[in-house]
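Friendly challenge for the regulars: who can give me the structure tokens for this chain first? No prize, just bragging rights.
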Amino acid sequence: MIVNLGYFKGRSRRTSEILAYLTIHTRAKQKTLREVTGYSLGTVSTTLKELRQLGLIRERREPEGRERLYEFVVPASQQLGHYSAAMDQYVHEWNEFLDQLEHKLQKNHIAKKKGAEEIRRFVKKLRVVLSVTASALRRLKFTQPETPLEVTEK
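First reply, four minutes later:
Bragging rights claimed.
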């Protein structure tokens, strides 16, 4: 499937096959790519050079040998997607915690205790911080439209 997606995006079949292998396995030697794809070493070498120039892979030498290792470079958009999901979860968990805290503060035996009002004000300030954080993340396009940040303003 990955090969077909790359192929339809205008990449050649050989480029798609090599990129698909590196996407799945993260890294490989040139010999391995030749064995897997069936292309000549020259064809694999040329394709790897093109992919390096596009910034899709990087090349590094193995510490104990002459062979080079080719690694798939995770696109920045995927990295941001990962951080976005983590931040969504972070904001969600804080909102849940603050909801629970406010619920406890509303109980009669706690609501009248010394310091309860200060805690309520602090919770309100934390909600503002969460709201501003969520808004800033949206502007930076860290969030994906399908999973908007959950912000509870009370």
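The longest helix spans residues 76-105. The chain has a mean pLDDT of 78. Your move, everyone else.
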